[in-house]
């Protein structure tokens, strides 16, 4: 996965409370080959009108949202099913970090395993950020995982990012759990060689 040190970006606001994984990516798209990118399915149904055309009022459909790599989302974002495809859709769309008062537990852990940084901030801070961005949509936010803080625009200040140390280290290094295991490949191969040398019947 792609390493995350810090990200400075404008922010798209998707203020849906209890936005579930089926809203993030409808289940019918999970049969698609991810090699083609799941980003095209992100918020597929809720960003469109009844006739299938893109709703210009939806945050990600606005021209100024095209470069945003950070989303401010509603509380309990990513609730519902355990589908990892919801995280794939966000990552493939180019989203690097999410800010919310809270996330669905399984979604939160799936995000960490795929290098998507979920930042929990108190609800009043998220509300203040949403109000600020409504008036100043081009003001950037910086999510600095190395420094362990998110810096908000205006007078909203800096706030700590709390992520479990193992997950933080993996994201900073750009390693998923398989890639982390492979960093120890020399030791693994040496152990296996010694084990077979001591027990030759294992290699038969």
TrEMBL record:
Residues 1-123 form the Aconitase A/isopropylmalate dehydratase small subunit swivel domain. It comes from the Bacteria. InterPro entries: 3-IsopropMal_deHydase_ssu, Aconitase/3IPM_dehydase_swvl, AconitaseA/IPMdHydase_ssu_swvl, IPMI_Swivel, LeuD. CDD domains: IPMI_Swivel. It catalyses: (2R,3S)-3-isopropylmalate = (2S)-2-isopropylmalate. SUPFAM superfamilies: LeuD/IlvD-like (SSF52016). GO terms for molecular function: 3-isopropylmalate dehydratase activity. Pathway: Amino-acid biosynthesis; L-leucine biosynthesis; L-leucine from 3-methyl-2-oxobutanoate: step 2/4. Keywords: Amino-acid biosynthesis, Branched-chain amino acid biosynthesis, Leucine biosynthesis, Lyase. It holds the Pfam family Aconitase_C. Its EC number is 4.2.1.33. Belongs to the LeuD family. LeuD type 1 subfamily. Catalyzes the isomerization between 2-isopropylmalate and 3-isopropylmalate, via the formation of 2-isopropylmaleate. Heterodimer of LeuC and LeuD. This is 3-isopropylmalate dehydratase small subunit.
